Amino acid sequence: MNHTPVKVVAVTASAGATTISDKHRAIIISNSGGATTAVVTLVFMDKNGQNTGDFVIRIVGNSGPFYIPCRITSVSCSGSNITVALLV
Fold this sequence. Notes:
The chain is mainly β. The chain is built from no helices and eight strands. The chain has a single domain, classed as Jelly Rolls (Sandwich). 0% of the residues lie in helices and 55% in strands. The model has no long low-confidence stretch (mean pLDDT 91).
């Protein structure tokens, strides 16, 4: 599936949740904090734009990007900073 990036969101570790309001179909998450593992909490969105629950993932430092074909409403992280590319 081909995607076009809409926006890249930088998320700072332990800064609280970042609300995602831009329309998107999928995301790519990357650890931008070097060798430290990032613990990322995503809140997914259902087809009506409502929150459906949390998903927690650990992204090891110096690893590649992680593609998730779902929409999210917010993202937060601890341990390391991350970047989230919103795709349409």
